[in-house]
């Protein structure tokens, strides 16, 4: 009997234990300690994610930055080297380089182009100015709206532009005048062909030439204008040369006539055969054949490749917060005559 009673008691205790376990399973879990642990987990995880995201942002190159390159005119081939170099720099930096401008070398049209870029909200502009004064206000407007603006080739020094990169144009004119005096030791009449009157880079070159010839036997004739146009420049040179048989020298403030076909320069060819002297700014690929053909004594070149490449890179640095340490970058000169034309030609990309 005792044994039976013990067995029954054991069974009852077992049933009571199962019942207690079942009841505990049905009751909600105690959350006194666990929310604190959960809170710790939530607090820690976003911090780690934030650090990772910041690191990724630092490593990634921004892809939405737009730098506009604005030449004096889209129909002026002298800017091709700057365009190619600027676009290559943009590709290297992972940014967009927008090459845009007016069709012709016109200051008012250029202002309209820049106004459009301001509305578009580009990050920076690299501008070759048709007229320093005419572009000052629109450059200042862009700068005041947070757009980084620099100039190349042709400056607007009184504007709020960040820096100028290009040739020291006054020194270019000075150098051309010094060489002209060497090849005309007895002096003589010299004609000048410019592009557009008032263009700051061309005016600086002309001033450097005039100042250096002052007090010498070089007589500077009235300045001729080709309107930054190849055909017009060729016509002006041919007509003026034929109309002035006592002319001793030509200085081309830019190389416009040498972008034409050889057959077009009949007046200049005759001028050279009669002993006339020719000096020109620029050393672009199409011009070098005229050195080989003996149409020109000396070319003095501006480095447009450096202007496009370094200009875009310096603007990118400014956008990223690294401001330039100078507001004037001189890209120097390149010289070409019959003695080194093959060497210079080897460095040029054909147009």
Report on this structure.
The chain is an alpha/beta fold and 351 residues long. 49% of the residues lie in helices and 15% in strands. Helix 3 runs parallel beside helix 11 (304-319), helix 4 packs parallel to helix 5 (132-144) and helix 8 (230-243) packs across helix 9 (266-273). It is elongated, with a radius of gyration of 36 Å.
Key terms for this structure?
disordered N terminus, 12 helices, 15% strand, alpha/beta, six-stranded parallel sheet, 351 residues
Distance between the termini: 120 Å
Q: Output mean pLDDT.
A: 86
Number of helices: 12
Unreliable stretches = 1-61
Radius of gyration: 36 Å
How much β-strand is present in the residues?
A: 15-25%
What structural category characterises the helix and strand content? alpha/beta
Largest sheet: 7 strands, mixed
Series of H and E elements: HHEHEHEHEEHEHEEHEHEHEHEEH
Q: What's the gist of this structure?
A:
49% of the residues lie in helices and 15% in strands.
Task: Provide the fold topology.
Blueprint: H1 2-26, H2 34-59, E1 66-70, H3 80-93, E2 96-99, H4 107-120, E3 124-127, H5 132-144, E4 148-152, E5 164-166, H6 169-183, E6 188-194, H7 200-213, E7 218-220, E8 224-225, H8 230-243, E9 249-252, H9 266-273, E10 277-281, H10 285-292, E11 298-302, H11 304-319, E12 328-330, E13 333-336, H12 341-345
Parallel strand pairs: 1-2, 1-3, 3-4, 4-5, 5-12, 6-7, 6-8, 6-9, 9-10, 10-11
Antiparallel strand pairs: 11-13
